[in-house]
Amino acid sequence: MFRLLLGLLWRFFHSRRDLLLENLARRQQLLAVQRRRPRPRLARLDRLLWVVARRLWPQWKQALVIATPETVVRWHRAGFRLYWNWISRHRKALGRKRISKPLRDLIFRMVADNPTWAAPRIHGELLKLGFDISERTVSRVSRAPKNPEPAKRWQAFLQNHREAISAMDFFTVPTLTFGVLYCFFVIAHDRRRILHCNVTRHPTGLWITQQLREAFPYDSQHKYLILDRDAKFGEAVSNSVDAVGLKAVRTSFRSPWQNGIAERWVGSCRRDLLDHVIPLNERHLKRLLSDYVRYYHLDRTHLGLEKDTPNLRPVAQLSHDSQVVSFQRLGGLHHRYDLAA
Asked: How far, CA to CA in Å, does 247 sit from each of 227, 231, 238, 239?
């Protein structure tokens, strides 16, 4: 009996509380509407009222008229952020001293530029530069992105040995009568010069041997010759490479990137010339390639040579009355620009 009376009293006051809260919410919204027209604006006290109502009143959504439930939730989250910003405003930062972004980038740069350096060596350089940092912090930071350029070691090796490296390769060109011509070339790595270039319909081992003799007629400064595993480069070609005093270095299977200098020259030749002409026959293609090699050596600048040409194109002396003149190259596909005499 006592429990029943308690239940009735609880239901009475609980329903009474909901009614009072709903009336309060309706009155607050009416006051907000009457405060500013045409569009009502809620003050901070109004927002606080609805945030408290959301925590204490389960049916708070039913009384909303001028705001959506999502808006009230956003107000609550904003208040949560303000609260924690306020109670943590006087706290001192604990732990290690924060590393600035320029210092972190400098450590990454040292790791990338010097792959053999460990944390003690980098820490010593930083101390000499006046940075107050521990060796353990350097070790932890340098392990993050270890080396942003993984190919830098291979690039450094090639740059230190490029005077002694050359490469050879084939690429095909279709003719006007739907035939296929094979273009053979040998390129030097140091200045990207084409040592030899020729065209044939039937590339055999004896023909390639003769091309190597023409490309390396005397004692050459080159010691290594990069070539792929094409079936045309058989035993006869290997013997001829040894005969001219070179060491053959074969790339891995299906790895054209290992002969990147030669592959890039093929791409340049196609983009600059072969994509815009249709060779008539073997003789026509030989003449086109001869003109392109001359243009490539004398006129065309290269990113890999710091915007220079393989034959070291001189820089013109510009003056206030200089006039720029152009000369056609490759039948007008490209031009060379010089100062008029």
From this structure: 10, 18, 9, 10
Task: Return the higher-pLDDT residue of 186 and 97.
Answer: 186
Over 60: is that where the pLDDT of 146 sits? no
Q: Is the pLDDT of residue 20 over 70?
A: no
According to the model, what pLDDT value does residue 215 have?
94
Residue 267 has pLDDT above 80, yes or no: yes
CA 160 to CA 150: how far, in whole Å? Answer: 17
Specify whether domain 158-305 bears CATH 3.40.50.410: no
* Strand pairing report for 247-250 and 324-329: unpaired
Tell me which residue has tokens 């925590």: 55
Q: Of residues 229 and 21, which shows the higher confidence score? A: 229
Chain centroid, CA 161 distance in Å: 27
Residue (of 339, 337, 332) closest to 317 by Cα position: 339
Pairing type for strands 165-174 and 224-227 reads parallel
Q: Which of 60-64, 173-177, 312-316 has the lowest mean pLDDT?
A: 60-64
In the chain the first and final C-alpha atoms are separated, in Å, by: 120
Distance CA 189, CA 159 (A): 9
Please state at what angle helix 101-113 crosses helix 135-142, rounded to 10 degrees.
Answer: 70
Neighbours of 282 (CB within 10 A): 17
The larger pLDDT score, comparing residue 340 to residue 239, is at 239
| Residues 153, 252: Cα–Cα separation, whole Å | 19
d(C-alpha 185, C-alpha 169), whole Å: 6
Tell me the domain boundaries of the chain. 17-83, 101-150, 158-305
Rounded Cα gap, residues 333 and 154, in angstroms: 35
Q: List % helix, strand, coil for the chain (3-state, nearest 5).
A: 50, 15, 35
Between CA 209 and CA 217, with CA 215 as vertex, the angle to 5 degrees is 90
pLDDT, tens digit, 9 for 90 and up, residues 111-142: 887 877 888 888 888 888 888 888 888 888 87
The two structure tokens encoding residue 107: 């450590």
Q: Which two tokens stand for residue 302?
A: 């290269």
Distance CA 150, CA 230 (A): 28
